[in-house]
């Protein structure tokens, strides 16, 4: 039986629309699917390091494939670069350059204020409300490479109209990694309008 771990996006959770969609799809095809809470119940103290530890517990020591959305896609790439038991990776609008892009999105003044006060308010999609997030996420994230150099086969989908993670990040990654196949779709960051288009391609890729 194929083992798959699905990694949700930033400020999301195991009950997100895409997580539920892919769990139903993949379990229907006979796979064993795990969808961990990457925040492990503590969003305010979120770090990249802690999320990788959650993935490690979910993945175990046996062969596993990963599907990651946005930050989850970046985490899947980081994990694949560090763990040989990862067979394949499907990356949905992966948030390459995660730590490096915060100053671009917030502006230097807002990042400086975040560092000074220690927390920032962000909208948490799973909870449908604003929640505090500690600066340790950015401080820890800066320790990790923007483009993880993994060699396992990868299938990447990215929306041409993504205003959260510009498609050029996936284009740059794919250009430097012959193991990765990138398809740019007529979609935004969430890719919700192309789920049924991606589904059979992802099933074929993971079954190979």
Question: What's the helix and strand layout?
Answer:
Blueprint: E1 3-7, H1 17-28, E2 32-34, H2 48-59, E3 64-69, H3 71-82, E4 86-92, H4 98-106, H5 108-117, E5 119-124, E6 129-134, H6 136-141, E7 154-159, H7 168-176, E8 180-185, H8 195-207
Parallel strand pairs: 1-2, 1-3, 3-4, 4-7, 7-8
Antiparallel strand pairs: 5-6
Helix pairs in contact: 4-5
Mean pLDDT comes to: 96
N-to-C span: 13 Å
Which class of secondary structure composition applies to the elements? Answer: alpha/beta
Strand order of the largest sheet: 2-1-3-4-7-8
The number of helical segments is 8
What are the segments in which pLDDT stays under 50 over at least 5 consecutive residues?
none
Concise summary:
With 208 residues, the chain is α/β, with parallel strands linked by helices. Helices cover 40% and strands 22% of the residues. It contains eight helices and eight strands, in the order βαβαβαβααββαβαβα.
Describe the structure.
There is one protein chain. This protein has 208 residues and is α/β, with parallel strands linked by helices. It contains eight helices and eight strands, in the order βαβαβαβααββαβαβα. The strands form two sheets. A six-stranded parallel β-sheet has the order 2-1-3-4-7-8, sandwiched between helices. A two-stranded antiparallel ribbon has the order 5-6. A hairpin with a 4-residue loop joins strand 5 (119-124) and strand 6. The model has no long low-confidence stretch (mean pLDDT 96).
